UniProtKB/TrEMBL annotation:
The lineage of its organism: Bacteria, Thermotogati, Deinococcota, Deinococci, Deinococcales. This is Citrate synthase. PROSITE patterns: CITRATE_SYNTHASE (PS00480). Pathway: Carbohydrate metabolism; tricarboxylic acid cycle. The keyword Transferase applies. PANTHER family: CITRATE SYNTHASE (PTHR11739), CITRATE SYNTHASE, PEROXISOMAL (PTHR11739:SF4). It comes from Deinococcus carri. Coiled coil: none annotated. NCBIfam families: cit_synth_II. It comes from the Bacteria. It catalyses: oxaloacetate + acetyl-CoA + H2O = citrate + CoA + H(+).
Length: 380
């Protein structure tokens, strides 16, 4: 039997649906949401506004945004049963394990969980966007043996998360910096976790199953864990003076450099350019310039040696230093990715299921043919 079908490894270049949410031109380093460049979203908007724009596919009015913000705030609290589960989780587990379990358990407590109508999915999406922040902060507090902090209604989504995480109200600059980081991570086309959420949704499964599936995909180090690995690399380098020798040796040995290269971008990831500026600002202001100086050196050498091959820093390259300067431990970098990306996951599920078709790809069979069953007693 001969099959001459072309196999797209990793589904690269395969189109399976249409979207009006996010456009990426990897060759030129362009990322837009609803046609608006990511740089403008980061500079002029907020995570709340981008989340609503993605859910509805258009820029909201001031009244619509105010109503959405009020809905998010009203849904920040999570059921006490879930907090009890989080408090009882084993110590020392990775927070992505905890988030995966918490998201699934949250679905058990929502009487509307099985509503897969567009209106039902949208209502659940609002709760998920609001409650992911509360859940992740609660996981951190519980794992540290600290009391879980209830959300406040007078803070922004970003500011409230930092407050629940640390117990201290962040400065306006800290809250805005974290808000920008959430904006940059809110959606990014058909990445592995978004595709996984859509694949689950295509079976007409519920939103909580879709989000749990997406969390499982994001948990992998080839997707959501890269910014944590960047911080490990910086600690391994040690000082700015050692950066050049370290990275040169890595490149000479053809070893992978964390936070460098991207499946889509063959030029600078535009999100990395935004974060680089903020990382530099924070480093200079707080006197924490070591990490930034190491990254600056690594970037220069990588671009000089690998730029011609389309290998440049991606969003993970600088995001970890920004989170670190906000007092966030590296184990929580990937959950924070989920805290932002839940907006894109929900929006993509809603968009896809408007004209749903069950995802059911084929695989090229390369096994034996014309075989027959051999009784167990006759097998060698």
């Amino acid at each position: 039997m001969t099959n001459t079908a072309n196999i797209a490894k990793g589904l690269e270049g395969v189109l399976f649906t249409e979207t009006k949410l996010t456009f990426i031109n990897g060759a030129e380093g362009i990322l837009t949401h609803l046609g608006i460049p990511i740089q403008e979203w980061a500079e002029k908007s907020s995570f709340e506004e981008l989340s609503l724009a993605l859910l509805d596919g258009e820029l909201p009015t001031a009244e619509e945004l105010a109503r959405f913000d009020a809905d998010l705030k009203a849904n920040r609290a999570v059921p006490q049963q879930l907090l009890d589960v989080i408090a009882a989780m084993p110590r020392g587990i990775h927070p992505m394990q905890a988030l995966r379990t918490a998201a699934s358990y949250l679905g058990l407590l929502d009487p509307q969980a099985e509503d897969t109508s567009e209106e039902g999915r949208r209502a659940i999406s609002i709760r998920l966007i609001a409650q992911f922040a509360t859940i992740i902060a609660a996981i951190n507090r519980a794992q540290e043996g600290q009391d879980i902090i209830a959300p406040r209604m007078d803070l922004t989504h970003a500011g409230n998360f930092l407050y629940m995480l640390t117990g201290k109200e962040p400065t306006g600059e800290q809250a805005r910096l974290f808000d920008i980081a959430l904006v940059l991570h809110a959606d990014h086309g058909m990445n592995a976790s978004t595709f996984t959420a859509i694949a689950t949704a295509s079976t007409l499964s519920d939103m909580y199953s879709c989000m749990t599936s997406a969390i499982g995909a994001l948990k992998g180090p080839l997707h959501g864990g890269a910014n944590e690995a960047v911080m490990d690399m910086l600690d391994e380098v040690g000082t700015p003076e050692q950066a050049e020798a370290y990275i040169t040796k890595k490149l000479d040995n053809k070893e992978k450099i964390m936070g460098v290269g991207h499946r889509v971008y063959k030029y600078f990831d535009p999100r990395s350019r935004v974060l680089r500026d903020y990382a530099e600002h924070v480093a200079n202001k707080e006197g924490k310039s070591n990490y930034y100086q190491i990254l600056e050196t690594i970037e220069k050498i990588v671009v000089d040696r690998m730029g011609a091959k389309g290998i440049y820093p991606n969003v993970d390259f600088y995001s970890g230093t920004v989170y670190s300067d906000l007092g966030i431990k590296k184990e929580y970098f990937t959950p924070i990715f989920a805290l932002a990306r839940v907006s894109g996951w929900c929006a993509s599920v809603i968009e896809y299921t408007r004209d749903n078709r069950l995802l059911r790809p084929d695989a090229l069979y390369t096994g034996k043919t014309d075989q027959h069953y051999v009784p167990l007693k006759d097998r060698a």
